[in-house]
Amino acid sequence: MVKIEIKHWQKSPEWRILIDYFFSLNLAVDCNAVLKALQPIFQEQGMTETVHNWEDHGYLVTYIKKNGSFANLRIHPHGLVLVDLQSYNDDMKGREEVDQLLNKVEERMKELFHSNIKRVKRLPAILRGGVIDRYWPTADGRLVEYDIDEVVYDEDSPFQNIKILHSKQFGNILILSGDVNLAESDLAYTQAIMGSGKEDYTGKEVLILGGGDGASNIDQMVIDGCKKHMRKTCGDVLDNLKGECYQVLIEDCIPVLKRYAKEGRMFDYVINDLTAVPISTSPEEDSTWEFLRLILDLSMKVLKQDGKYFTQGNCVNLTDALTLYEEQLSRLYCPVEFSKETVCVPSYMELWVFYTIWKKKTDI
Amino acid sequence: MVKIEIKHWQKSPEWRILIDYFFSLNLAVDCNAVLKALQPIFQEQGMTETVHNWEDHGYLVTYIKKNGSFANLRIHPHGLVLVDLQSYNDDMKGREEVDQLLNKVEERMKELFHSNIKRVKRLPAILRGGVIDRYWPTADGRLVEYDIDEVVYDEDSPFQNIKILHSKQFGNILILSGDVNLAESDLAYTQAIMGSGKEDYTGKEVLILGGGDGASNIDQMVIDGCKKHMRKTCGDVLDNLKGECYQVLIEDCIPVLKRYAKEGRMFDYVINDLTAVPISTSPEEDSTWEFLRLILDLSMKVLKQDGKYFTQGNCVNLTDALTLYEEQLSRLYCPVEFSKETVCVPSYMELWVFYTIWKKKTDI
User: Fold this and answer.
1) Catalytic residue selected from B273, B286, B297, B363
2) Of A45, A327, B164, B165, which has the fewest beta carbons less than 10 angstroms from its beta carbon?
3) What are the boundaries of each domain within chain B?
4) pLDDT surpassing 50 at residue A284
5) Does residue B133 have a pLDDT over 60?
C-alpha cells in the first residue's frame, strides 16, 4: 500500500481534456519534413520536445509544457498525422490556447500538403476524471457523450450501483450499474412495453415484473431514488406501495410467480421489464439465459390463453443476442408466437427492440 | 513542399485506436509508488519507458513498443491516474493484448488503492484515420459515435460536401458539410416539419424551400445522391422534377419567392427546410440571420392570411440561438405568432425544435 495523504478528489476543480485530431493524406510523407514543419508551433508554446523515431513506423514526438499539459504528435510514413493534446483545467483561456495551437498546426499542414489532405478531423474534447461523467456507451459499444450537468443521486445498493443524472435535454436519467435504464424523456419506452397504445387495460389484470422506475422491483433503493427524482416517469405510484388498483411487491419475482401459478391466478397481461436480453451469445455459459427462460415459462403459466406478454429485447444492432432470445421462445413448456417492434427511445441513442409474445392458438 | 511518394491512403487497412482509461481516487497519491507498481506491466510487453517528472504536476510516462504502438501513463498527485494506449491495426489479437494490459493495470491499481478508487472508467476505442468516419458531433458539440459501416456517396458540389453514409440502425444518412441532415429512419423529422399529422393537405397549395433530400434545392448533386440512395425518404419524387401535383425547381429560392410575391401568388403552407437556425448568437456579425429574416419576410408575403409556415429550429440545448430566432420573428414586416414542438429525430442523437408560424389575426 502506498503512503497516502487523504484529500478529497471531488473538491478538485481540475478536469482532463483530450483533444483528438488527425490528418489523413493521399500520400506517403517524409516524417522528418513534417516534424521540422510543426516543431516551431509547439516550441513557441514553451513546450519541450522528446522525439522517438521507429524508422519504418514513423515518429512519436512528445511535447511537454510546464503547467502539466502535453501533446503527442504521431507521424505515420503512410500518410497519417495525429495530434492529441492533453491539458489541465477546463478554463476558457486554456481552451483558446489549445484551439490556437491546433489552428496553426492545421494551417501549416495545408501549406505542406495542399490538396493532398484527404481529411482533417478535430473531435470534441473528452473530459476525464470529472465529478460528472458524461460518457455512457450504448449497448452496442459505441462512445456517446451525454449533456449531463448534475449528479442527482448516486448510491450503491446490495444489488447494483444506482445513479440518477440530470441531462439538459432528457431530464433525469436512471443509470443502473452503468446501463442507461430510463429518462424522463422516454415515454416512448413505457408506451412500447405496454403494447404501443393498441391495448385496452380497463378492468384487466396486469402483472408487471421489474421496472423499479415505476413498478415492482427487488431493489428498494431504486424505488427510493425514483420516487423522489423520477416523478415525471413514475408519478406518485411509488409513494404508496398499495393503491386502489395496484400493489407494489418489493421481492424476488420468481417465488411470487410460482405462488401465483400454484394458486392458478391468471393475468390478461404480463409485462416483463426486468432486464434486457443478455448481450452474451453463448447461453450455455450464461445463467442469465436460464433465468430468462424460467421467467418466461412461469409468466406463460400465469398468462390467460388469450393474454399478452410484453417485454423489451435489446439494441437493434445486437442481432445475435436477439436471435438467441427468439430461439429461447421455441423452448418454452407451451408453444408461443411473437411479434417485434423497433422503437426510438430518446435517451438511449440507439434503436431498441420490444417483443409481444402470446400463446399459440391450438385447434381443438 | 516536402518530398512525396504517391501511395493511396485508402488502400491502407491500418487504423488508429485510442483507448482512454482513467482512475479517480479519493486521495492524493505518491506518484513514484504508482509508477513503480505499474512499470512492470508495460515492460512485460517489451515497451521502453520515458519518464517526465513535473514534481508538483506529477508524472508523464511514455511507453513505446517496437510495432509502433505506444501508451501514455499520466499520474496526478491529487489522485487521478490516466492511461491511454494508441495502437496500430484494428485486429482482434491487438485488441486482446490491449485488454489484457489494461486488465492488469486495473488489478494492480485495486491492489494499491482498494476502496479508495472512486471511479474506474474505460471508454470504447476511438478509431482515427479510418476510411469510414464514425464520429459526427451533435449540434450542441457532443462527441457521438455512429454505427457507420459503409460510405455510400461522397462528393464535393460547388456548394458543399455531400456524404451519404450507411448506418446499421438508421439506414442511409445524408451528411452535408459534416452536419447530419436526415436518415432513412427519420420519418419523425418529415412529420414534424409538415405539422405533425394535424394538417389536411388535400387540394392545398404548398411551397417547400430546401429539403434537397426530397424537395427543391439549389444543389443538383444533393438531389442526384438522394434520389439514388435515399429512396426510403424521397421515394420516386426526385426521378422527375415535374409531376401531376408537384414541380421541383433547382434554383436560388430568393428570386423565386420575389417573383411569386410580385405575381401575388399565395400558398396555404410554406415549409422552410433550408437551414437550421445558425448556432452563432451574434446576429449583427452573422449574415445568416439576415438571410433567415429575408426568407421569413418573403415567405409571409406569399402565405395566405390563414396559412401556416413550418420550419425546423435547432437542437433544444442551443437555447440562446433559439431565443434569438424567436426575436427575429418579432421583426418581420407583418406581426406573426408561433408555437414550437420538441421532437426526437432518431439519427440526430439530440432533441430538435420545430416551429409553426402564422400571421397574427388583426381585428378589423
Assistant:
1) B273
2) A327
3) 16-127, 134-179, 185-359
4) yes
5) yes
Enter the ipTM.
0.89
Give residue-wise pLDDT tens across range A323-361. 999 999 999 999 999 999 999 999 999 999 999 999 998
Give residue-wise pLDDT tens across range A245-267.
888 888 888 899 999 999 999 99
Looking at chain B from residue 309 to 348, which residues have their Cβ under 8 Å from any Cβ of chain A?
315-317, 344, 346
Q: Does any CB of chain B come closer than 8 Å to the CB of residue A68?
A: yes
pLDDT in tens, A128-158: 777 788 999 999 999 999 999 999 999 998 8
The x, y and z cell numbers of residue B96, run together, are 486482446
Distance, in Å, from the CA atom of B204 to the CA atom of B303, rounded to the nearest integer, reads 12
What CATH number has the domain spanning B134-179? Answer: 2.30.140.10
What percent of chain A shows pLDDT beyond 90?
A: 51
> Is B7's CB within 8 Å of A78's CB?
yes
Residue of A nearest to B36 (CA): A2
Q: What is the CATH number of domain A16-127?
A: 3.30.160.110
pLDDT band for position B11 (50/70/90)? very low
Q: Does residue A273 have an active-site annotation?
A: yes
Looking at CA atoms only, how far is residue A165 from chain B in angstroms? 16
B220: confidence class by pLDDT, cuts 50, 70, 90: confident
Q: Chain A interface, mutation test: which of B3, B6, B7, most A Cβ atoms within 10 Å? A: B7
Q: Could you tell me the three cell numbers for B44?
A: 512485460
Q: Which CATH code for domain B185-359?
A: 3.40.50.150
Residues of B in contact with A15 (CB under 8 A): none
* B142 part of contact set with chain A, CB < 8 Å: yes
The residue of chain B with its CA nearest to that of A81 is: B129
Residue A161 sits at the chain B interface (C-beta within 8 Å): no
Q: Does B118 touch chain A (CB under 8 A)?
A: yes
